[in-house]
Amino acid sequence: MNYYSTNNPHYTASLSEAVTQGLAPDGGLYMPERIPSIPMAFFKHIGQMSLQEIAFVVASTLFGDDIQSDNLKKIVTETLSFDIPLKEVEPGIYALELFHGPTLAFKDVGARFMARMLALFNNKGGDNENVVNVLVATSGDTGSAVANGFLDVPGVRVFVLYPQGKVSRIQEAQFTTLGRNITAIEVDGTFDDCQAMVKSAFIDPSLNSTLTLTSANSINVARFLPQMFYYFHAYARLAEMGVPVDRLTVSVPSGNFGNICSALIAKRMGLNISHFIAANNRNDVFLQYLLTGKYVPRPSVQTVANAMDVGNPSNFARILDLYGGSYDDICRDISGFTYNDDQILHTVSELYNRTGYVLDPHGAVAYRALKDGIEPGAIGIFLETAHPAKFKSAVDSAIGTDLPIPSKLAMFMRGEKQTVKMSPQYPALRKFLLNECH
Ligand SMILES: *Cc1c(COP(=O)(O)O)cnc(C)c1O
Predict the structure, then answer these.
(1) Which residues line ligand 1 (CB under 6 A)?
(2) Is the entire prediction scored with pTM above 0.90?
(3) Which helix or strand (DSSP H or E) is residue 30 part of?
(4) Element (DSSP H or E) covering residue 382
(5) What confidence tens digit (pLDDT) does each residue in 375-405 have?
(6) From ligand 1's centre to the CA of 124, what distance in Å?
(7) Complete domains list, the chain, with CATH
């Protein structure tokens, strides 16, 4: 199957090209040319299937023409080597815990899947001469998931750009201490600056004629599409428990909107989700779009849910494209909510005091939006996207605990930080890459 650019539906690329390029050369985002349906029979028995089995069916439906079945099975199995539990936190409200991977955040799945897919495409001819350079801008969690997903993948170098002083110490340790094929670049600016620098690199023709560059942000189809496994899996676990699945509302804590966009595509493939909630912190450009019909990007502001501090969500272009630009249709499927830091932390403490369940700030935004947006009688799922200990100081002060740091995180904290400092302008990045990669 081919993938077209959201800027020009006549511009198409193969899966291998789309994954290796990241962004289309015209600056658009790649979308699958067709969204294949999954046979209804699959949903009849989904409750008896494991996460890996479900993911393999979904992955085969999407990528089956382009990747041999045994290779795809290996990619899926290796990517999903950990649990994704669905827990009822109060009647009819379920937390889908996506934080049991190596960096304890939901981006592990997409990053690990993409690393394996890229390695497969890169090794096709058996010549490993061609190094792929992965550029990634992070407001915290992308950097750690991508760096760990790609660590020691042959033929791939990773450059992680992050805003100096604006990610938590634990997050920073997860991508600045690895070394080997991972370089961390500490930018004296904001996340939006980092994202803009990376975007400039992708559309710089002369740089791209010398270096093979790709993105591991959710603009890359290999990173964002596998996220739809979560939604099929959540549906299956509800079916398995005998919960009625005819009216599901799913609340997704959203930053660049890659995760929710994959859920919208899952629905097009036949997954019966009735309604979506895009939950935002104060960076609520999408909610403003729902309210006004106008999309007006603005600079991001820093919040306690910092992986969602995004002022110009890159996957908005995909959502518009998926709905053929229809504002009415988008509003029918998706509602939006926004919360400030006080509301987020209050939500963490309120749920903890009432039920004992510990939310992280991102999950808290999604939980609260679900409570505020769900219709009576519907079943609600919210995505818990990060382990609460990744935001230890905020969570500890909200609920008055001293959360233990999981050993997976403590290990990173013992490493030595190595970074390259950079000013927030594209020419600095360009010069650095040309020096480094020759
Ligand atoms: C990246 C991230 C999000 C936002 O996901 P998008 O796909 O960018 O919308 C939410 N929560 C956490 C913990 C994240 O790391």
Answers:
(1) 105, 107, 141, 218, 253-259, 307-308, 362, 385-386
(2) yes
(3) strand 30-32
(4) strand 379-384
(5) 999 999 999 999 999 899 999 999 999 999 9
(6) 32
(7) 73-105+224-405 (3.40.50.1100)
